């Protein structure tokens, strides 16, 4: 199949199973949010996909070929984490350019996308500013530009907008969706905030149980692209939690899932 296939049979840490049987198929261009209680293995799953941890039982493929390790990956991969992880000795432009280094080496005559990406995230005027002179929100913008500068086919994001105030977070989410619209990467986005998942994703995967697995694969309708405090997001959240009251605690009654599918069929 084309796109990403994740099939985890088991992932253990120190002998204890953390992830159980889990199959996720995702098509190019899809935006998938991963939501679940703390410790349910969301970040672990991202690190397996990123190739940062190869110690698991399962297969992760991209267009049918193993997605085994960063650097050998058949998909251009971008990543963004909770911390912007900027190099303090490089200005905003050079931080973004750093991600292009491999491409510059590989493609003679390659024209840097970094200035355009910084324009797109609203930092056209701040290209030569050092990270310690940028606000937290601006630093995340640089990290967002850096994630997209490689034109990733697969973008892994682990709570990239956590602990930002609402307007700053909303602006960053709008920038992210604009960039996704243009480049169409497949995104796996970990968040604790159900509203953020509903405002960004095409599908939300809910994790839970021990060892963790996907409890529910929920298609999002109506809330995508809206601000977190919008009526559309509030309503999507209310409908979901009315039907599955303990979902965010990682508990789901399987009989409810059938009812939901029948309702939406
Ligand atoms: N390097 C590690 N060594 C041992 N145990 C680990 C390691 N990394 C994660 N774990 C354990 O694996 C489980 C899943 O952790 P993980 O960070 O993937 O969960 P999470 O759903 O992302 O949590 P959170 O939402 O709090 O970030 C937890 O019990 C955690 O303590």
TrEMBL record:
Membrane found in the keyword field: no
Domain ABC transporter: 4-234
Superkingdom of source: Bacteria
Cited Pfam families: ABC_tran
Keyword ATP-binding: yes
Keywords: ATP-binding, Nucleotide-binding, Transport
Signal peptide start-end: none
InterPro entries, alphabetized: AAA+_ATPase, ABC_transporter-like_ATP-bd, ABC_transporter-like_CS, ABC_transporter_ATP-bind, P-loop_NTPase
Gene Ontology MF terms: ATP binding; ATP hydrolysis activity
Family indicated by similarity: Belongs to the ABC transporter superfamily.
Name assigned to this protein: Sulfate-thiosulfate ABC transporter ATP-binding protein
Source species: Salinisphaera shabanensis E1L3A
